[in-house]
Predict the structure.
Amino acid sequence: MTSMAILTIFALSIFVGFEVVSKVSTTLHTPLMSGANAIHGIILVGAIMVADSATNTLETTLAILAVLLATINMVGGFVVTDRMLEMFKGKPKAAKANKDAEASK
Amino acid sequence: MTSMAILTIFALSIFVGFEVVSKVSTTLHTPLMSGANAIHGIILVGAIMVADSATNTLETTLAILAVLLATINMVGGFVVTDRMLEMFKGKPKAAKANKDAEASK
Amino acid sequence: MNKNIYELLGLVVALSFILALKGLSAPKTARRGNLIGAAGATLATVVVFFAPLGEGKSHHNTILILAAIAIGVLVGVPAARKIQMTQMPQLVALFNGVGGGAAALVATAEYLNLGTGASTAEVVATVFTVIVGCTSFSGSVITFLKLQELMTTRPVVFPGGRFVIAATLAGVLGTGGWTISSGANTPLLVMGGLALLFGVLFVLPVGGADVPIVISLLNAFTGLTVAASGYVLQSTLLIVAGTLVGASGTILTRKMAEAMGRSLFGTLFGAFTAKPQVATGEQEARSVKSGSPDDVAILLNYAQRVVIVPGFGLAVAQAQHTVRELADMLAAKGIDVAYGIHPVAGRMPGHMNVLLAEANVPYEQLVEMDEVNPTFPQTDVVLVVGANDVVNPAAKTTPGCPIYGMPILDVSEAGNVIFLKRSMRPGFAGIENELLYDAKTTLLFGDAKDSLTKVVNALKAL
Amino acid sequence: MNKNIYELLGLVVALSFILALKGLSAPKTARRGNLIGAAGATLATVVVFFAPLGEGKSHHNTILILAAIAIGVLVGVPAARKIQMTQMPQLVALFNGVGGGAAALVATAEYLNLGTGASTAEVVATVFTVIVGCTSFSGSVITFLKLQELMTTRPVVFPGGRFVIAATLAGVLGTGGWTISSGANTPLLVMGGLALLFGVLFVLPVGGADVPIVISLLNAFTGLTVAASGYVLQSTLLIVAGTLVGASGTILTRKMAEAMGRSLFGTLFGAFTAKPQVATGEQEARSVKSGSPDDVAILLNYAQRVVIVPGFGLAVAQAQHTVRELADMLAAKGIDVAYGIHPVAGRMPGHMNVLLAEANVPYEQLVEMDEVNPTFPQTDVVLVVGANDVVNPAAKTTPGCPIYGMPILDVSEAGNVIFLKRSMRPGFAGIENELLYDAKTTLLFGDAKDSLTKVVNALKAL
Ligand SMILES: NC(=O)c1ccc[n+]([C@@H]2O[C@H](COP(=O)([O-])OP(=O)(O)OC[C@H]3O[C@@H](n4cnc5c(N)ncnc54)[C@H](OP(=O)(O)O)[C@@H]3O)[C@@H](O)[C@H]2O)c1
Ligand SMILES: NC(=O)c1ccc[n+]([C@@H]2O[C@H](COP(=O)([O-])OP(=O)(O)OC[C@H]3O[C@@H](n4cnc5c(N)ncnc54)[C@H](OP(=O)(O)O)[C@@H]3O)[C@@H](O)[C@H]2O)c1
């Protein structure tokens, strides 16, 4: 891949990242941060690639440690985000009840 | 550029295109369409590239015609969009006046 | 020019287009956004003359190119400058069409240039560009003719039309496949011709109300052809810019259709599903109640609440200032006056807001459809100035008519309805308006501006 | 696996992350968004084991890798599952830190692997990743310690601190330059060590209220390190995913700072500008008015309007259900009851809304800060349950204190203020609350749940 292509991809990704979260509501700040945090756990893929081609002990040790840390980041991140959002699910219902109540006024 | 890079750029551009206009208000539909229309006038660059490397009369004729059409598209598009938006500029003021009027009620 | 710098500038231009679209979607930044886009496009056009070329290649035809650009500017700028606001939509349609045509020409020329050296993927991209570019070109020309009223604005449907369209489409795809498998020139030419025909057939059955949606759709498609050309020409800039327009145009088309209460699917496949039209109205000479300016003045004078419904005719007659004068007089008499604005009144979304803002109509008197509709039962007089389709009850009562399903202003709920128009001719969608024959309707024939002036004078004399 | 398929799957995963972020920004789709992201990440992890390798290369260490993943899952999942809601923010901080550490390790290992074969651009990317990854790692550990209250939550500032920080930063950059120019291993190691130190020094001066902002910022930075690693490893997926997190994280950080009324600049450069703290409050034993549950019950019983302000202590005491019981009793007596919700009450944005929704508190009783503040002058009794900083007037009156500038709930405008807390200890930000000594304040010491139960019983006995 040419460095021009990489630069273009980089620039477009920045725009996507900006735009996609620009409408987030305050209540979702924490889950969004946590979800984004889980996504960068994808460094796991990089860690596996490096471990996969590591030939001496030092490299292997570093890479395997990276695999361990990245897995914790990724798996833990998605699970904890899901748990947060599970708690949020009560809210829309409540909001709806509220609306209904108002409508019946 | 590899075809993978092109595909990635294509996919990311789709997302950017979607997101960037997803909040447009009804009043701006026409100018936005017109502005987007002007942007695809950038085919002018392609027309110039082809004309630039054309070697026989047929190719040259087609390419020069393309340059002409693309120029009309691009230049006319940006000018007409600007004219439309010029007319819109009165509105925000009016809206503000309206707010002020409400505030003073 | 150094290749890296050249490509970097291309990326800068691509990003300027993103910023342009982003700017255009918010009222505050719209104008700046457009200017950013124009600046980017200018930069790209200058830079391409200094494009680094492969070994042993040189720039050709520079003088010719510059001449073509000069002519293009001389044609495009005055057209965009001088056009009347009422005719802007058709101009946008035309600009879009020439863009599609340019993309098709570029792809064809490059195809000839590459000759047998083109890869399959490149031929596929070429075929796509030529088909869609030609369709967009001829389709846009038809929308132009419709909007300019150089041809009927009613859906044009002929018996068996859908089979002709399907056959044309099959022909387009067949010749497309033939082009891809043979790599020859003749099938490409035939294909282009068939695609031009398809564009015409595709747009003919579209009713007036759906025309802006179709323009927007063709616009999105043209964007995609630019992206495909970019693939063939190996230009990242064209790929990004074209895809941006394709994607944002698609969203915009959907939003427009929603705003007009039209089904996008119905609009797109209208060509295949439209039936020869039922003649609406029996065309017999029915009686209508027409009044004099004095009658209208008296009606208005004793009203407590008046709603003015402006339409395309107001724009044509340039009557916005006179309408304001009348409204001010009524307001001075203590009458409650409001303007009922339909989202698709006029010929482009937001048309009426703009015209009335130009005439300095106070913003709080402009009431959107959803808010004004519930107030009609308490309204004594509705003054319909050069509007027709947007108050036509056929949208509710006549399934199958071109505007069926469009939300309308329910003016028939008011006490009296006054129409200011020049004749009994129907509106843009070409369908009879039963409301004109209604007992509570009074017609005041003549140019809207003249009629309004007379009403104003009559009111003064009261 | 075929290279094209492999790369295509990478693109699919990248797109799934876009959809995940998009989903996460709207309440309805948030949970689905997170699952899409998890599915994408799982796919990527499986696929990478089948990555096509260059000529003559083979897969190494597969067993070890799988073992490490297994251990990671066994550590990560239970931690995420078992953690109490009150401790979630520090867990997120910790996860972020290990991610940054992983990126730094990956970059280091690849650097060793490439040896002298690395291009300058790759070395620059490596240096960037190691610096930011290490900073993020140690910085996150400090935020964890702060949030877990294993160390003081007050800004830690020592005299001359800013010079130490500046010197460390200079050292980091210097060794970075040295690494780039020499390509050797020792400077990279020294640089990593200094970056770890810098992370600690960077976060120490951050006050409690700014901690979530710093976590978000470190999160964005970690995203960028992933993108840089992607560049070195030539993985489009990592580039896109990392950049996405970097960009969205930056926006999110700004939005969080706005929501908390904090200056992002002040937070970021707090390390360089913070001065040793002015001791707030004179620490002399001043008298406070403490009351019995009966006193509180009587106050509440004769009120017309009561506002309950829940805070972090309510979450710790798990008193949400008891608080609801009390509120229902008061409402049954015809007293107007509302909950005043501060946006940063608790330990994460939205914390209180969640806890109270869990206890089935009717949604319409939850009133946001901006709406509840104007009602305090008409409020007879404010019941502050385990909150402190969010009602601390120092945010308005004491420039330089860690929460200065944060909007607060103006409970001092109400007739009576009752605090339910266990001691005179300050809240998260570690600053005295003058309101505790105010004449209209009554303190009821004890665990929030116990105290509330007693108040409920006293009310029943009345
Ligand atoms: N806004 C958009 O985005 C958009 C875009 C494209 C199409 N459309 C379509 O355009 C139509 C708009 O509805 P509309 O009610 O505003 O307009 P309309 O249905 O086209 O009706 C205009 C009326 O004005 C009268 N008129 C024309 N010139 C006049 C003059 N000088 N003085 C007095 N009257 C004059 C015409 O009758 P006479 O000829 O008898 O005078 C006609 O009945 C809809 O069908 C809509 O779907 C809208
Ligand atoms: N929401 C967020 O996003 C977020 C994130 C990170 C940090 N923060 C920060 O956290 C703080 C939130 O303010 P806050 O007013 O909710 O909390 P706070 O200022 O931390 O005060 C909590 C109070 O609850 C009391 N408490 C603790 N456990 C208790 C128990 N079991 N029973 C009764 N009382 C108990 C404590 O006093 P005793 O020890 O005397 O009982 C303390 O005064 C702000 O400084 C905010 O900036 C917020």
Q: What stands out?
A: The two ends of chain A are 63 Å apart (CA to CA). Residues 35-105 of chain A form one domain. Residues 44 and 70 of chain A are 5 Å apart (CA to CA).
